[in-house]
Each structure stands twice: as C-alpha cells, then as structure tokens.
Amino acid sequence: MDRIGASVLTISPGRPFRASLTTFGALVWSGFRRYATYRQATIAGSFTNIVFGFLRCYVLLAVAAGAVGNRPAGYDVEQLATYVWVGQGLLAVTGMWGWAELADRIRTGDIASDLLRPVPPVVSYLAADLGRALHGVLTRFLGPVLVGLLFFPLVTPQRWQTVPLFVLSVLLAVVGCFGCRFLINATAYWLQDARGPQMLWTLGSGVLAGLYFPLRLLPEWLTVTLWVATPLPGLLQTPLDVLVERDPPALQAGLVALQAIWAVLLIWLATVVQRRAERKLVVQGG
Amino acid sequence: MGEIRAYAALAGGKWRSMLSYRASFAAEMLSNVGATVLDVTTVFVLFRATAQIGGFTLAQAILMTGLTAFGFVLADMTVGNIDDLKRYVRTGQLDTMLTRPLPVLPQLVFTDLPLRKLLRLVFGATIYGIALAANDIDWTPARVVLAAVVPVGAAFFFGAIFVLTASFAFWWVESGEIGNGFTYGGRDFTSYPITVYSNWFRDLFAYTLGFGFVSYQPALALLGRTDPLGLPAWAGYVSPLVALPAVAIATAVWRVGIRHYRSTGS
Amino acid sequence: MIQMRELRKDFTVRVKAGRLRREKRTVSAVDGIDLTIEPGEMVGYIGPNGAGKSTTLKMLTGVLSPSSGEVSVFGLTPVPQRTRLALRIGVVFGQRSQLWWDLPLGESFRLLRHIYRVPAAEHEARLRRCRGLLDLDAFLDTPVRQLSLGQRMRGELTAALLHGPRVLFLDEPTIGLDVVSKQAVRSFLAELGASGDVTLVLTTHDLADIERLCDRLVVIDHGRVVHDGTIEALHARYGSRRSLVVELDEPLPPGFTLPGASVTGVEADGHRVTFALDGSSSGAAVAALVAVASVRDLSVVEPDIEDVVARLYQAG
User: Fold this and answer.
1) Residue pair A10/A20 in contact by the 8 Å Cβ criterion
2) Which among B49, B156, C297, C303 could disulfide-bond with C247, CB atoms 3.0 to 4.6 Å apart, if both were Cys?
3) Is residue A7 part of a domain?
4) Who among B28, B34, B197 is closest to A58 (CB)?
C-alpha cells in the first residue's frame, strides 16, 4: 500500500512538506512544458500584443501632450510608455483571457477524473497555471518590453526595493488572476456552461484592471472603490504602478499588501466553491 | 434566387442554434454591446485629462470613434466570424463546405452569422448619429451623401480586412491572434485622429494599409477642417473608395487561398 | 461515369533535418491511378493508412485538385465544376459532420433541402424512405450533439441522399460504430446498392463492409492500385483457397487422394482432416469423400480476407 502511494503525486496535510513541494514543482513544470509546445501561438500572440502596444502608447502619449504639465493622472511620458509596454507583456503572464479548460472539463464530465487524483483540483490547476505564467515571462513578456525599449523612452526604477516588490506584485497578480478565472470557470458546475460569465469577465477585466487606460484617470472615488472592493486593479495596474514608481514607497507596499489580501481571499473562495461543487457532484451525480 | 433561399436557410439555422442557448446568447449580446460601450467610454475618460487629443476636441474625436464603431460593427456582424476559418481548416470541416453546391466564402459567412452583435450595431449607429449632431457641421448635399456613404465604405473596408486576415489560415493554420492585430487593431487605430501616431506608424497603417481613409479623412471633410497632415480637402470625399481596392485584394487573396488549400489539403 | 486517368497527387512536406533546417520533400499520395467506375457499381476502396484512399475521394468530390492526370465524374471536372457536381453527388466523411450540431436532426434535413434546392415533394419522398429504412423517427427531434455515433451516422447518410445523388462517396462510414449500428448502415447501403440507381464508392478499414457490400474491390497501396476486381479474383490471384474440414469415424487409408483438393492438415490421430480446395465448388470433393469414408461431420471454411489483404500490404 505504501509503495503504491509513494509513486502517486499526492498533496495532502498528512504528507511531509518536502514531498508535497516536489509534487507541486512537477505540476508547475508540466504546465510550463505544455505551453512550450505552442510555439507558433506564442509568436502570433506576441505580434498582436506589440501592435496593440503601439496603438495604446501613441494615444496615451497624445493625451499627455495635451494634459496639465504633460502629466495625466500623475504619470509622466516615460512612466506612461512603460505602463503600456510592460502591461502588454504582463497580459500574457497573468493570462487574463481565454482559459476555459476547467469549464470545458466540467461540461464534458471529464472533471470526474480530476476528482480521482490525490491532489486537490485548485492546487493542481494553480500549479499548472504558475508553469504557464513562467513560460509567459520567458517568452511573451520579453517581446513587447523590448519593442517598447527600442521605440520609446522607458523608466529605469530609482529605488532599490522597486524590482523585488514588482516581482512579488507580478506573482500576486498571477495568483489573483488564476483565482478569478477559476471562479468564473467554476460557475459551469451550476450553469452547465460558463460562456456567459466568461464573456462578462473578458469584457470587464481588461478595462477594470487598467489595460485600456490607467485607472487613475477615473474620478478618485471610483478609483479607490475599484482598488479596495475588487481584485481587478491588482491583476495589472498594481504591478505596473509599482514598476513605474507612481507612488511613495509606503503606499506602494500598501497596494501590494492589498493585492496579497485579495489573492489569498480568491484562492480561499476557489477552494470553498470547489468543495461545494464536489459535494453537489457526489450527491446529485453531476 | 435559389441561392438566396439557401443563404437565408443557413442564416436561419444559425439563428435557431443560438436560440437553443438563450441565456448564453443574451450574455453574448450584452457583452458585445458592452465592449463597444467601453471603447467609447475610454475616449471620454482620456478626454478627462486633456481638452484635445492630437489637436482634436472630444466631439470631433467622437465623430471618428462613432464612424469606426458603426462601420466596424457592420462588417463584424456580417463577415466577422470568418476568423473561424482556422478552425474549419484544422478540423477539416472546410471539406464538408466544399462538397456543397454553394461558393465557400458566403457559405461560411452565413453558416456562422454573428447575430449576437445586433445590439452593438444599434449602439454604433447611435454614437455616430450623436457625433454628427454634436459637431457644428455645415450640411451641404455632398456632406449628406458622404455621411451616409462613409459607414458603408468603412464596413466594406473592414470586411475586406476580415477576409484578408482570415485567409492567412490557408497558409498558416496556427496563425492564432495575428489577424486581430489588423482587424481589432485597425478598429482601434481608426477610433482616434491619426495625428496622434508617429510618422512611420501612420504611414504604415493609415496610408499603406489604407486605414486613414476609413474615418479620419472623411471626418475632416464632414467637419470642414483642413488636414494638418497635408492631404487636400477632396481626399475626404473620395476616401470611401478605398474600400474598392481592399475588397478586390481580399477577394483575390481568398481565391488564391482556396486554390492553395485544394492543392495542399492541409 | 467516373473516370480517373493517370491521376496523381503530390504533397510537399517539410521534414526536420537538423536543429533548425527543414527539408522539403515531395510525397506522392496518389501515384498514377487509372480507374473507370460504371453506373450501379458498388466499389470498395481499401488500403493501409496513408495509402491515398481519402485523397482520391477528395479529388473525386472536388475538394482537392489533382497534381496531374485527369478525373471526371458525370463528365464534369470536379474542381472547376464543383458546385454543379455537388448537386449530383452525395458525400459522407465518416469523421466529419455536415449536420447542424445544435439543431434537431430534422432541422438539418430541412436546411439541406434549401441548400440543394430540392422540390418539397421529392424531399418528402426521399426522407420518408430513409426514415423507414434507417429508423430515424425516434431521434428526429433530438439535437445532433445529443445523438449517439450510430444515430448520427444514420443522419449523415440521410443528409447525403436527400438531393437524390446518383453517386454516393463514403469515407469510412462505419468507423467507430458499434456492432448493431454497423449492421444497420451496411443493410441500408446494401439495399441502396441493390436498387441499382445509386453508384457506391466507399473506403473502409473494415473488410466486413466490403464482403457485405461490394462486388468490386480496389486495393490501393502507396498511391497505386494493386488489385482491382472481385473478392474471389483476389483470392484466386493470391492463392487463398477455401478449405474442407472433415471429422471421420476412422482415419483415412494411407495414400488417399481426393480429386480437386489436397490435404493440408491431419489432427486428432487422423480423425480430423483438412483439405484445401482447388476450385470454388466443394460438391465433387464431398461426394468423393463420402463414397470411401464414414464422415461424422463436415464444414467448409471460407478463406480469410483479412489475411489476404495483410499479405497484400506487406508485399507492397
């Protein structure tokens, strides 16, 4: 019995921490490898991100040219350009759109085989998503950032803590974004088909995460509400604001802490929802 | 006549398929119109920080945004789903289309007519109407004709871009999102005055690919403004004609693509 | 009615040669095929995977253009005259569907009537016939996505026949079907062929399809026709013979010979003997045997077509 158990990937409270970590690592690696096979899609996606980078960047710079002190919402030209290009790169790292794997598996009933595995679905999907994000950092992130560097003046961080804080913020954005997408996909447990929620997500996430324009261009009460009451600014705007050093260090740390709270909350919610769904599956037979 | 009934039947089939997913259909319809609402809202938000973008006021910019929104949705609602050609090629479902007694392009278009974009069309037309009213336009007969023709020209132009980018799939099945860079990218490009772009980028998108004639030049003609970039006033009046070469090129590339597909069967 | 002359189809494939280099190589999927098919024939087209079966079928239906050679169906050249040809042929690709996934099966038929511009009365008559023969009524109102594979294939067959084609091309019509559905599809096609007004051309991996349906067998390998004729002709050519197995009360006397047959096996201390028959008739041999020995039981075993075809592929 023990020998069989040892050969199966397991993550559970009873297992030694190191073994669970190895399993988690293996799942991350499998997510990475899977995306590494989509080489052509990576090229096509980067191309499109770059085209949109140019479009957004020129428009925002034109806004800056007419704004008071050339600083719309407190960003100077270099900060805006950095915001746009790093944002185009991050888009593929957080993987905001297009993930419907869980919903598809629920719809087709394949999810049942996930439940048979000794690793909880939220954990295994999160691990695979971190692998995907890592692949995104090494491929899709670089293209837009390099093009941005070539064509526009970008900012260089001035404070020592900016880069580590940015890395942490990106990690939290990836986890938070995964949590949102998991919850959207999980509606399929009750709706059979998550297409409706999926579409509303695609519609709202881009603009409310600060992709189309920095959210600080909105009236202040709205910006603050979005930041505190929704996880969305934490998916894109927070890491970008951290990188361009839009705020003093203390406020930046606060924003990242807010991001962390949301990330934990979302993963907890995902776990609860998944447990509820499993109970429903067992009781009602799907 | 028979062909028209056949296409009507295909469109009817799509309609009834949609109705079998009523809730999804409603959600899609709402999120579609929502996307256009957000595009327009973005313009308003950007103008909160500045009185002019690229030398144009909010009302003038909205005229370009509205023109683009209306023309683009007209195209998107008819041929927008041609983008799915990749899937038809990859799954071999295109073979089935080739065994039916109808030309492939209209067959694809009518089989997959994106009716969920209907509400978006209404919104696009409304914004265009409001923008026309919001600007102080000196209505001459020529401008009246122009105002009516421009959205149609834009629709044909964007339709051509849709077909052209979808045709990539004949040579490169995994072309993925590349087409979006030109279709949705083109829409974003024409939503703003082209004075905001740098020279090389403008030369490429506006004059080489022709996107400058979709909304910017006609909007100048409607507003009676001289072009800060130097094109003569009449350029705005003839710019809907840019749809003609675009459609011709798209048709030719599509034909070559089908021929290529037939010789490679990929 | 269907003619192929020196028909060829070459594909260029890129093969990896080294880390980054790719080499172009030309592969002939169909390598010079000459075939004529007459009205009313039922032709089975078999061959190993990648032998060029589907490619040939695609060239016949106007999906693919030939690299060289000629092909004509009803005197039409498929690719340039595709839409005219489409009105006169029916096509079933076993692994693709021409039905509307989200609509009830009956709706698909109605849509196809408009696409093929079939007069209502003709449509009704053909549909009624298919409904009877294929038992469609039970699931006519079910969305296609909810049909079983067997039900869907029955729908596909109907869809391909509603415009009254004179030729029906079937690419793997029984692939993936359960035993009962296979039987249903086969009996339907047999009946269709027997009526004589539809010419059938089908590719398959299931030789039972061929044995049940086809009076003519075309075996293709590496893009070339390696056999064209009846199943019997195939056996005759490859020396596969029927055999006669007899159970005897007493072993046969030594040196016993049977006219028109030769002993190929002796088992159970001579109580069971197997003869290979030279001709196709076993009557004479049985009569001669019964005259000299006391026969307890007797059976005639047909040669196994799978074996023959397997040998054929290996030889190619």
Assistant:
1) yes
2) C297
3) no
4) B197
